[in-house]
Design goal:
Bound molecules: NADP nicotinamide-adenine-dinucleotide phosphate
Distance between the termini: 25 Å
Shape: globular
Number of strands: 16
CATH class of the largest domain: Alpha Beta
Strand order of the largest sheet: 1-5-4-6-16-15-7-8-14-11-13-12
CATH topology of the largest domain: Isopropylmalate Dehydrogenase
CATH architecture of the largest domain: 3-Layer(aba) Sandwich
Number of domains: 3
CATH superfamily of the largest domain: Isopropylmalate Dehydrogenase
């Protein structure tokens, strides 16, 4: 294993090859170099477990013909200790160069110049899609009676909306000037003493996100894409997101996508064979529909803030907030990550659930086209949980509670179940 040191570019290990890109498609060799950030706090524990399972699943699925050549890159506390920087430029460059990478959770430095390392990486690499698949794994404790009915993949726009960080604190000179402009020149009514934020939603940003969601549905044989928005209230941002989404479908996927309206008007309420249906739902309705009619939804495409709420709400429904996987994906570069934080109170205790990082690694394998390895790892993960071999978080929720295993023991059991 090679490690990136501050100030030195990450070189490809002699025995691996970089993933290439032809047009829109990754070209993945049998020995791809994949950079990893092990993460802070409990990161090293869950990374060790994840790597053991992934290596074993790949070896098994391809009978030793394929393997990942891991290369460590630094970010977070480990990077700061080694290089004085929280996010060395070499790390970002290595992820861009090798195209597919994975990371554990990172501590957000308090008081530093960086708002969040995760946000910084998303911005620097233009990872505009936050993809969160949410499905049920048998044996996982869930608050729902039928958690297995939910199986959605959420595409959340990752760069715009109120997350763009364009805001002015109440009482500041900048805030006064913005308020003066908006009230005096634009005729807006804004109460004195208001904090002010801007919500940019662009045609470019909306279309590229919905385009990816539709492509995903086509590639993975998913029946529908639903645009989730708050366009009834925020017409020129959320409403425009919806309209641009429909425009992408009709301009670029005319033969492959049919709208819900067309299904009713022209096809007697039945989606024509082989087509993906596109529809839209207002966000508040979407939250209740996911609870009351989960099986009617498949791929969801939404703006940044809606997507943030929706991802966690959906993950909680399948009992999987602690094992929810995620990927931040751009054009030709993708970074998969555990969606929880560093859980620092458990650091180094070999205690926490590696499920979020492991399932993110499975997303990564699918992204590379290594579906067989991903399927094998997920099946073994599920079999292990069904056998009630679980870490403390699930152990305490099971009825009756069971004795928990360590992170490393959980990983070893998954490897045995492969
Ligand atoms: P957190 O690290 O997610 O931990 C909150 C609680 O969630 C833990 O105390 C634990 O619950 C549970 N939990 C988290 N990971 C778990 C796992 N792998 N297995 C089982 N249970 C798990 O959130 P936080 O305490 O708010 O944040 C801590 C640090 O993480 C902060 O520095 C924050 O900035 C950072 N953070 C990073 C990311 C990221 O890198 N993507 C995301 C969020 C937060 P119990 O106490 O009930 O056992």
């Amino acid at each position: 294993m090679k490690r990136a040191r501050g100030g030195r570019p990450v070189e490809a290990p002699a025995d691996g090859h970089a993933i290439g890109l032809r047009g829109d498609r990754l070209e993945v060799p049998d020995d791809p170099v994949v950079p990893f950030i092990e993460g802070d706090g409990t990161g090293p524990d869950i990374w060790r477990a994840t790597r053991a399972v992934v290596d074993a699943a790949v070896a098994k699925a391809y009978a030793g013909r394929r393997r990942i050549v891991w290369v460590e890159v630094l970010a977070g506390e480990k990077a700061h200790r080694a290089t004085g920087e929280w996010l060395p430029a070499e790390t970002v460059a290595a992820i861009a160069r090798y195209r597919v990478a994975i990371k554990g959770p990172l501590t957000t430095p308090v008081g530093g110049g960086i708002r969040s390392l995760n946000v910084a990486m998303r911005q620097q690499l233009d990872l505009y899609q936050c993809i969160r698949p949410v499905r049920y794994f048998r044996g996982v404790p869930s608050p729902m009676r039928h958690p297995e009915k939910l199986d959605v993949v959420i595409f959340r726009e990752n760069t715009e909306d109120v997350y763009a960080g364009i805001e002015w604190q109440a009482g500041t000179e900048a805030n006064r000037r913005v308020r003066d402009f908006l009230t005096k020149e634009m005729g807006a009514e804004i109460r004195e003493g208001s904090g002010i934020g801007i919500k940019p939603v662009s045609e470019f940003g909306s279309k590229r996100l919905v385009r990816r969601a539709i492509q995903y549905a086509l590639v993975y044989g998913r029946p529908s894409v639903t645009i989730i928005h708050k366009g009834n209230i925020q017409k020129y941002t959320e409403g425009a997101f919806r309209d641009w989404g429909y425009a992408v479908a009709s301009d670029e996927f005319a033969g492959e996508v049919v709208t819900e309206k067309e299904v009713w008007d022209a096809h007697g309420g039945k989606v024509p064979e082989g087509k993906v249906m596109l529809n839209d739902r207002i966000a508040d309705n979407a939250f209740q529909q996911l609870l009351t009619r989960p099986s009617e939804y498949s791929v969801l495409a939404t703006t940044n803030l809606n997507g943030d709420y929706l991802s966690d709400a959906a993950a909680a429904q399948v009992g999987g907030l602690g094992i929810a996987p995620g990927g931040n994906v751009g054009d030709g570069v993708a970074l998969f990550e555990a969606t929880h934080g560093t859980a620092p109170k458990y650091a180094g205790q070999d205690k926490v659930n590696p499920g979020s990082l492991l399932l993110s690694a499975c997303m990564m394998l699918r992204h590379m086209g290594w579906r067989e390895a991903a399927d094998a790892a997920e099946r073994a993960f599920e079999a292990t949980i069904m056998a009630k071999v679980v870490t403390y978080d699930f152990a305490r929720q099971l009825d009756p509670p069971v004795e928990p295993v360590k992170t490393s023991e959980f990983a070893a059991a998954i490897v045995r179940n492969l």
